[in-house]
Write a structure and sequence with these properties.
Number of strands of chain A: 18
Shape of chain A: elongated
Largest interface: A-B, 34 and 34 residues
Strand order of the largest sheet of chain A: 4-3-2-1-5-6
Structural class of chain A: alpha+beta
Radius of gyration of chain A: 23 Å
Number of helices of chain A: 10
Helix content of chain A: 25-40%
Order of helices and strands of chain A: HEHEEHEHEHEHHHEEEEEHHEEEEEEE
Oligomer: homodimer
Distance between the termini of chain A: 58 Å
Chain lengths: 368, 368
């Protein structure tokens, strides 16, 4: 039985045939790892129908033998440039029409490799592996994401029990990471956003040194990363003091928008339309000017992957995609509410993978 | 008085004049931040003798006003691509000969910007800002690095008091990060390398889930990052059980090689020659085959910066450079010893910025 990495390379070869490519040079670290199982960096993969060669350096000789013994290796010494060795491997392979990861490959790297292979025709394949392969998760990947959710959700429960008015946003962030690591996580899936009161109106935010006490709400957007680097991405907005009427209204609108969008998720659905379900509902409640970002996104080895829920998206849902659903309403000077869960698209419809409660009542977390 | 960011832009303008450039498009996040004070990402800086424009998006409007009020801003909406707005700003500026950061700018980004400015001649400036500006630190940067060392050194002392035979390498890593954050650090300067026994023979290594007990030594390579993102980089090798004769010999050779190299540091010195001092000393002691990496490197906003100490380096030391000095001897199947300190090049010679003891006696840390 082929390994899951071999299966992925087979899928990539089929995509290359459609584009009439002889070969592809994979240069993005995460994509190399996804296609080979190699966990190091600074290495390329040259893939042709006959050949799969990892182009790396002598630091990684042992690791490559252990992590992907079925692949060929080309190893450079410290004195030789990666581009030169890559050029030599491409030259020997005799390929003419070569795909490249043009959305991440630097201008200089292409130039230095090209010098060694003057006859090659380079074809940009921006986001090919990300959009056509990594967007649909296999069983092993889904199991890893479920594990990330175990760490994230239990870490959040522990953080809630630790919160106090004098704790700063930044302290809450690192105590959360520490709790998730004790449970077995590698760490945060991304630097957590922990924003109190009116700061929660800023969708991107690094936790401050200000104490979380003396405000009505606390927005926590976090995730865990497993040891094999799969992630999850959740948000809860805690009500930390007596709420005003507006908070109850805003919370209710965000929650209902999220539930409506999640219920509509299934294979064949348009990501633009799922986005519109939440967006139109929020607009009908007259908060349309205060939801300024997309409804959600895929995730896995990276925190932002395909597909995207947004008014501009052309993506269509397929079984195996794993996405966030995270509407929000942000009122400048007042604060913001966002609720985010993680959903797997299945052949029958969908499965909500996250299980933390999100009702208005469950959000109460008074800071004594 | 100009801000330190304005001073840096003035220095860059002088470098551009030498290369007869009308302008430079700065696309690397760290370089944009270094030249402007802006702490966000996904933004460019167009710099000409008359103009300094940050090209960003609406998420960052408020943050840009706060962090770099003296600069012009071009802000795009969610529907417009960064490359299109950059093209439009370049077009309006009327520049003809434009420098780019070709060592990091992706092929596709260059192509999409170029489309909008067909008359422009692009000139690759690989590593210009890194090698000519960021390699020499100003007073504020040196103060930040000293602060990073306060966090790292005190964190290490606390970790030493926490070590126990059943603690895993990974636990030691995250307990160290947690301790440094409680002291005020943003976190690790890089994922710490914590390697027990024969694992210390691998120069690059991610901490495992194995307990640190039952081995002779524990290699710890770590650093702290300050809130304004300056870093430091240290290594100590702890002797965790009764050492054999070989450990005493190897430790002594590494320490003496390090001391000899550090003493030679001063302005005008060749980095290749400083590297050779340690390398030749280790070779004279017949461990020449077991020191397989460069002697050290600059650091600051990134953990690896210019200059580099290696047999291939053409760098020359200047006052204001801050470097690691980190020889090591790695014996496969036995283990490795590395000792690393941080040194500032001064006009009079040098100052060793780190102050943790490194004698053989100080390395004893028996795990009960």
């Amino acid at each position: 039985m082929p390994t899951r990495h071999a299966t992925r390379r087979q899928s990539l070869l089929r995509l290359m045939q459609e584009q009439k490519l002889d070969a592809i040079l994979v240069t993005d670290d995460t994509n190399v790892s996804y296609l080979t199982g190699f966990s190091g960096d600074s290495s390329y993969l040259l893939l042709t129908p006959k050949l799969a060669v990892v182009i790396s350096d002598s630091r990684y000789t042992t690791q490559l033998q252990k992590e992907c013994p079925e692949l060929d290796r080309a190893i450079r010494d410290a004195g030789r440039a990666l581009s030169e060795l890559a050029g030599s491997v491409i030259q020997k392979s005799g390929v003419r029409k070569l795909g490249m990861e043009s959305s991440s490959l630097p201008v200089d790297s292409l130039e230095s490799i090209s010098k060694h292979v003057p006859g090659v025709e380079w074809v940009g394949c921006p986001g090919l592996i990300e959009s056509k392969l990594r967007s649909v998760k296999d069983e092993g990947e889904i199991a890893e994401i479920r594990q990330a959710l175990v760490y994230a959700q239990e870490g959040f429960r522990q953080l809630k029990s630790m919160l106090s008015p004098r704790m700063t946003e930044f302290e809450a962030s690192y105590e959360l990471e520490h709790a998730m690591r004790k449970l077995g996580a590698r760490g945060h899936a991304f630097p957590a956003i922990i924003a109190k009161g009116d700061r929660a109106a800023m969708p991107h935010y690094f936790p401050s040194q200000q104490p979380i006490g003396q405000s009505r709400l606390l927005l926590i957007d976090w995730g865990a990363e497993t040891m094999s680097r799969y992630r999850c991405d959740l948000t809860r907005t805690l009500i930390t003091a007596e709420p005003d009427d507006r908070l109850a209204t805003v919370y209710g609108v965000v929650l209902e928008a999220q539930q409506l969008a999640m219920q509509a998720i299934g294979p064949g659905q348009s990501c633009k339309e799922i986005d519109a379900i939440a967006r139109n509902f929020i607009a009908d409640k007259e908060f349309g000017d205060y939801f300024g970002h997309g409804l959600g996104h895929g995730f896995g080895l990276k925190i932002h992957e395909q597909p995207r829920f947004s008014p501009l998206s052309n993506d269509v849902l397929e079984p195996g995609m794993v996405v966030t659903v995270e509407p929000g309403i942000y009122l400048p000077g007042w604060g913001g509410v966002r609720i985010e869960d993680n959903v797997l698209v299945t052949s029958a419809g969908h499965e909500v993978l996250s299980s933390l409660p999100s009702s208005f009542e469950s959000a109460f977390c008074p800071l004594a």
